[in-house]
Amino acid sequence: MNQATASLEPRLSWEDVLDAASRREGERSFLSRLVLYICQQHGLQAAALYSKVEGGYDRLVSAGSEAFPTSLGADEELEYGSVLLPEGLLLYKAGNTGRSDLEGPLILALSSALRAAVLQGRLKQQSFAINYRGVELEALYDVGLAIASMLNLDQLGEEILLRAVSLLDARRGALYLRAGDRYVLDHTFGGDARQELPYEDPQIAALLDGKLPADQDLLAGARHLMGLPIGADGRPQGLLIVADKESRHGVGPFPMADRRSLSLFANQAAIALETAYLHQQALEKERLERELDLAADIQRRLLPTVFPRMDGFEVTGWSRPARHVGGDYYDFLRVRDGRVAAVLADVSGKGLPAALMVSTVHSALRLLIDQADVGPELIRRLNHHIAESSAPNKFITLLVAELDPHRAEMRFVNAGHNPALLVGPDGEVKELESGGLPLGLFDSSTYRMGRLDLGEGDLVCIYSDGITESASRLDEEFGVGRLVDLLRTTRDKPLSEIVSAVDAAVTGFEDGLNQGDDQTLVLIRRTA
Amino acid sequence: MTEMLKVTVDRRPPLAVIYTEGYINNQGGEEIARVAYDLIEGDHTTLLLNLKGTKIVNSIGISILIEIIEKMLEIDGRLAFCNLTPTIEKTFHIMGLAQYAQIFADEEVAVGELTV
């Protein structure tokens, strides 16, 4: 057996060939055996069967050790013997004893088998296309339902991009989401993409118009781009770009049908993105609410839970923030020789920034009051600290009053706060003004101290402007006058009842309207 | 730079497990086919494709996988898949791959079934 015939093993009978046709091995196996059988019957060294394709022929099967080309041009000159078939071509290399021209029933059988294989291939292609259309529809359905239930914006972005790339047989892709006047890269697949794209840009406009943009760096290295806006109700939320349509022979442009598919896909994606975005916003709001609840709890702990008892005085305090947390603060601090300092502060603004400054005042005052008596020096130091640690446009009004049980005296400094009210046993009311500028405005501010001898039954009311400036439905202010009247009529009642009366009066005055500002009250009464 | 598929193989004759990582597209599919045909030449008659590292497959990749399935049928071998994402599993069912290749939830179950 020579080398050429050795590569034509195994020796086949016609039954072996027919057996391949009847088994499930497929048409390629049958054709392979038939070509080998022809070689053996016609004494050929080698042969290869080609099927007709656009512009030439592709090799299907071969027998023998000859390296036949995998594809041939339609008009290519051949160095082998050939038999032209209706659906292809048989190339062969004749053996020493073989015939150089082939014909007869085996060639007829080969021609028929090739035709059957070609038809079967076309049927498979059509079946594949129909099935893949099912995949496309399923993907659109999924984007509409399954993806719409995916509320994680990051996962959703990746899912949308992967589905679009897969669905359109793209090699590359990128998803941009709109942020103001630009598109920001959300996800990329298959290679690098520009991090940002301007919203109003001729290159982007050309791309969305179905034209190839001149800027080839949009997706680095991509040759064929297709892009569509993702938007709901005419509001563009993003940009979906795919690149380089794949085939078995390489990459090329996307046909118009793909643009329609991508458009359908982008519409579904827009709804899914909008849902996920709203969900994310709701989660963020919920997180902020939790943080604010925590901050409110922390702030509540800054306020006294019990009020100090001291000879000759009784004191109380009350505060109601307008939001979760507030910018009002009050405290009672025990200082030297049994004295007590009552303090009420009001930070400009409301909410979290004001609450943070309340913490600053609380800490600083507690530290400084151990180092200096209540008076101008204490407030000067406090002002210095606040001016250094707060934003330029923030300030704090504060009134601190020191009660001395041994001398029935109240010494106080007012740093830009509303004057405290002194209500005498006879109902006479006097405003207590003494002090200087609010804390935090100027580092060099100076302060004056006021002194007041208190008699039995004298009531001092320190309040924040959230009480006097609370508004009615007629846009009228509660005012100092109503507060004074209320204090006059309740001045003999227990302090807790006076607080309740103020609370009820202000709440009634607001008549269900949102509280405009934090409301705080400190009451001091000389009892003996 | 494009997303190239990485393929690794664990040979446990007659079974071989092919692990993929990345996009099963034209290039990725061809790489799987090259590895699969080498294994078939090396007398591995049962191939398990573990797609744990693959999130995405396109129609070209699927057509190549179908060719590998056909090749396995020609040699009376078996091809199976495991660790498919729900999307890929659904695609394989629609495209008919599941009629000729078993799909398993994970590798342990697949190996247990394929080596019986």
Name its key features.
heterodimer, A: 528 residues, alpha+beta, Beta-Lactamase, Phosphatase 2c, domain 1, 3 domains, 12 helices, 22 strands, rod-shaped, disordered N terminus, B: 116 residues, 5 helices, 26% strand
Report on the architecture of this protein.
The complex is a heterodimer of chains A (about 525) and B (about 120). Chain A has about 525 residues and is of the alpha+beta class. Chain A has three domains: about 5-125, Beta-Lactamase (2-Layer Sandwich), CATH 3.30.450; about 150-280, Beta-Lactamase (2-Layer Sandwich), CATH 3.30.450.40; about 305-525, Phosphatase 2c, domain 1 (4-Layer Sandwich), CATH 3.60.40. Chain A has helices spanning about 5, 15-20, 25-40, 105-145, 155-165, 200-210, 255-300, 350-370, 375-390, 465-470, 480-490, 495-510; strands at about 45-55, 55-65, 70-75, 80-85, 90-95, 170-180, 180-190, 195-200, 225-230, 235-245, 250, 315-320, 330-335, 340-345, 395-405, 410-415, 420-425, 430, 435, 450-455, 460-465, 520-525. In chain A, strands 6, 7, 8, 9, 10 and 11 form a six-stranded antiparallel beta sheet that branches. In chain A, helix 2 (about 15-20) packs antiparallel against helix 3 (about 25-40), helix 5 (about 155-165) packs antiparallel against helix 7 (about 255-300) and helix 11 (about 480-490) packs antiparallel against helix 12 (about 495-510). Residues about 1-5 of chain A have low confidence and may be disordered. Chain B has about 120 residues and is α/β, with parallel strands linked by helices. Chain B contains five helices and five strands, in the order E-E-H-E-H-E-H-H-E-H. In chain B, strands 1-2-3-4-5 form a five-stranded mixed beta sheet, sandwiched between helices. In chain B, helix 1 runs parallel beside helix 2. The relative contact order of chain B is 0.18. The model of chain B has no long low-confidence stretch (mean pLDDT about 90). The interface of A and B includes residues 26, 172, 220 and 247 of A.
